Amino acid sequence: MQKYSKTNILLIVFCFLVFLAGCDQFKDMFKTAPANSAAKGSSAQQSVTPVSGTALAKVNNDTITLESFEDKIKSLQALSTDIKINTFEEKKNYLNDLIIQELIFQEAKSRGIERKKDVKDAIEEFRKGVMARQLILDETKGITVDPSEIEAFYNQYNKAFAAPADIHAREIVVSSESAAKDILISLLQGGDFATVAKERSIADSASKGGDLGFVKKESQFDKFNEVISTLDAGQMSQIFIGPKGYYIVKVEEKKGGEIPKITDKVPNVEPPVTVYDQIKNGLLQQKQAQRIQELTDKLKRDAKIDIKEELLR
């Protein structure tokens, strides 16, 4: 099971708040409407909200401006590359969604739903989230990553960016350590691995000269995968213990697994990103999380906090 440090948790909270408070559709759910506004068809006198911007659509006495409409589209499209609202029909459909949302909001307002406790609590929680998000943005503003930091990280951890290699391996498995040592000596003296495997291995692969083909990671135990990953093509391992006995393995061939250049694209990542940019983003998030960690530690030190843990039992 993966363990999360305090920094990990703070980073997760940070990302969640940025997403939540950045989504205009959530904001619209809790906006304050005119005090006397009501749904269409109501005979009550409605007040008019002052409009700042170009009126795109009027919904009773509320206005959707062109500027707010375009901002909402930008916010939505920033959440995912799969969201596209570019054509006339797409914009028309999205505007219709906003109009329906506004009508539902007005009807909810006219029914006094905003006065319900669970709704008021939700609005208050959202308000806290927006304020916390803004504080985090203010606190982490101006944090940067120097190119020398990125290069230093790459030089130290570049092997981690390599895709797993496809490894063609053979194995010899025997039931005793003494037999394994005897076999290893004969192999080091020039014995043929496949021939010895056929003659002495107790594994199912013995009939094929210990040939496992290209090994699937999930088909072997951790130690086996660890050992073959450290060997080059043509190399043979020392003796190690596994589920069926004592193992000796040989790597016949390796495909892939090359360390990418810092300017190369990271494999299997969408949208495409270079190793350089991935490191930069990771280091930036790490610095931001550390800054928030320092802030929360200070706030806790300066605060008076009284917790009755017995109530949690």
Describe it for me?
The chain is an alpha+beta fold and 313 residues long. It folds into 2 domains: 6-140, no CATH class; 164-255, Chitinase A, domain 3 (Roll), CATH 3.10.50.40. The chain has helices at 6-22, 24-29, 66-79, 88-110, 117-140, 147-157, 177-188, 193-200, 222-230, 275-302; strands spanning 55-59, 62-65, 166-174, 211-214, 240-242, 245-255. The strands form 2 sheets. Strands 4-3-6-5 form a 4-stranded antiparallel beta sheet. β5 and β6 (245-255) form a beta hairpin. α1 crosses α5 and α1 crosses α10. It starts with 5 loop residues before the first helix and ends in an 11-residue tail after the last helix. Residues 1-46 have low confidence and may be disordered.
The tally of domains stands at 2
Helix content: 40-55%
Number of strands: 6
Low-confidence stretches: 1-46
> Given the structure, what is the number of helices?
10
Strand content: 5-15%
Order of secondary-structure elements: HHEEHHHHEHHEHEEH
Q: Can you tell me the overall shape?
A: elongated
Could you describe the largest sheet, including whether it forms a barrel? Answer: 4 strands, antiparallel
**Structural class computed from helices and strand pairing:** alpha+beta
**Overall mean confidence score, pLDDT:** 86
Q: First CA to last CA: what distance?
A: 25 Å
From the alpha carbons, calculate the radius of gyration and give it in angstroms. Answer: 31 Å
For the biggest β-sheet, the strand order reads 4-3-6-5
